[in-house]
Amino acid sequence: MADTPVRFGIMGCAFIASKVSRAILLAPNATVSAVASRSIDKAADFARANGLPPETKIYGSYESLLDDPDIDAVYMPLPTSLHLKWAVLTAQKKKHLLTEKPVALNAGEFDEIAKACEENGVQIMDGTFWVHHPRTHKMKQFLEDKELFGELKTINSCFTYFPYAYPEFFKDNIRVKPDLDALGALGDAGWYGVRSILWATDYALPKTVTALRGGVLSEAGVILDCRASLEWEDGKTATFHCSFLSNLTTDITAIGTYGTLHVTDFVIPYQELEASYTTTSRSNFKELFTGWAPLPSEHAVAVDLPQEGCMVREFADLVLSIRNNGAKPDKKWPIISRKTQLVLDAVKASVDKGFEAVEIVG
Q1: Cα dist. 245→83, 224, 239 in Å?
Q2: CATH topology for 131-307+341-359?
Q3: What is the pTM (predicted TM-score) of this model?
Q4: 244-292, pLDDT tens digit by residue?
Q5: In 81-232, where do the E strands start and end?
Q6: How do the domains of the chain map onto residue ranges?
Q7: Most CB atoms within 10 A, among 16, 24, 52, 147?
Q8: CATH architecture of 6-130
């Protein structure tokens, strides 16, 4: 049993599940053992289309997947409105949970999920790929370098995309349906912006969050475009922009007293097995303002697995430690998820209150 990889059941056949099922197959310590859909034919088609092992079990209900004693962990790519029910049931069945984000519709729902996971001794992690990329750890080393970067002053983050190839997006996609993913662009893309800001601040929650005017809501009241500013008691500030209405952009700019970090593909790197970022430190204009000195430095980071494979490998290591060594679930991941959820809640509350500042209480 100690040598057996973590056996995943995939709960739902959303588009993102194809990417993560591939990641599970690439990870050295994980495998796909089952896939479930509300349609057994859809589950079978998914297994074939994604090259799952021939012995993969096919289920026509989520309950059947959860009742399988040979499943160690569940990957859950369901719409956010379904997370509370199925995440709690997953935990009650003693199965570890890798779930798509946002984890819940609000922090209250999140706390119910986290409580079920804690009571049943199972690991929970949200599926934010980029935080597991080795590049992310290298960038954090720069932010922590007091000589090169100094003290963090401000962070600006952006994740926007326009679904050019999907003209029916604003009519059919779950991300714009209030009964499925009610947070819209804030939950889908804003989660990344908020997470990147918290990552840069060592997950220190801001004091206040203010949604900026000029956002766009659909006729059903779902956020299609949103901007917000965040402020900390020590004077740090941040902004983020998330949108379904602007060209694909995934940027982080973190500015310190001495240095600046730039990354332009933080959500999904331009290349799968190599990613880069740019730093400047103690730069100034040359005499007569003819250029910069020193010039920015570009840093490339090669990887052995795509970032989603790194995520699965890290999650599976935690599960194996619990299963084989009696370790406790790592509380870092639900804490980080909850803080992200709290900031999303504050942005949504600010929008609902006419763009008033909202104070965060952790």
Answers
A1: 26, 7, 18
A2: Dihydrodipicolinate Reductase; domain 2 (3.30.360)
A3: 0.96
A4: 999 999 999 999 999 999 999 999 999 999 999 999 999 999 999 999 9
A5: 96-99, 124-126, 152-160, 208-211, 216-217, 223-231
A6: 6-130, 131-307+341-359
A7: 24
A8: 3-Layer(aba) Sandwich (3.40)
